[in-house]
Amino acid sequence: MEALLKKHNLRKTSGRLSVLQCFLECGKALSHGEVQELVGQKMDRVTLYRILQSFEENGLLHKVPDDQVSVKYALCDHVHDLDHAHSDNHAHFKCNSCGDTVCLEESSIPEINIPRGFQVNQSFLLLEGLCNECVD
Amino acid sequence: MEALLKKHNLRKTSGRLSVLQCFLECGKALSHGEVQELVGQKMDRVTLYRILQSFEENGLLHKVPDDQVSVKYALCDHVHDLDHAHSDNHAHFKCNSCGDTVCLEESSIPEINIPRGFQVNQSFLLLEGLCNECVD
DNA sequence: TAACAAAACGCAACAATGTTACAAAAACGA
DNA sequence: TCGTTTTTGTAACATTGTTGCGTTTTGTTA
User: Fold this and answer.
1) Which pTM was predicted?
2) pLDDT at position B47, please?
């Protein structure tokens, strides 16, 4: 575990070891709040934010989009076409330069292999990069 | 525009008309804060939250995941396999019952048709539903 | 191992975002 | 127009994320 920190150019501290252990042990994506519960209140909230940030910057963790909060909204497909069947199963593109998020209506989300026993109700596909106006 | 509200069983109010107009005019996904800027401070913040919620519940708007905040973190693929090339280009599954989000390591995100001139740097695919332990 | 510079930490204060409760106002069917 | 239901505004609160700064810790070098 210490080797993992060193490999990613992160100084070994007790806080970082605790956080890393959480992820190694539970094997699923965790929000800031969930990690906080696992490491306990003895670690300062701000410190945890900074640890997560440093882990991400150094390639130890990656972001996983969450649906709960801080979402944007867009008009449903059928709004412009009143008689059409309802389907919002398309990808979205977010430009990192201007910040706009647009619907890619023509790109439906392809089927993904999921583990046996899982049931998918909804899917979100977000592409990030530069739009045609910001690409230069 | 009034017909749209009626069709979705939403009472016609001046606030809802303003919000709906924002989405019809700008044609892109908007966060709560962005809509607030467009409609101005005369509309109460809480009211706007409720209008967006009612629009979503009645099928007029749909959620678009955003990457900025409220994300979860997961260990990068290469953490367990130190010599492997770095790639976090896989889908994630979030269970709506237990709230866990896991990486679907074996499911890489397929290529998506994007508009001419756009450049994709990163992509997030989130599947939502029930995991094998919550499906019954 | 002692000293030093850089990095990480804890704390306080703040900003932004989201929620709840309740009374007043508006919408809409009768 | 009346009366019921829904929507709205206000206030208060909770959660989440950020910034600045002084102190502590880490790791390197003498």
Assistant:
1) 0.76
2) 97
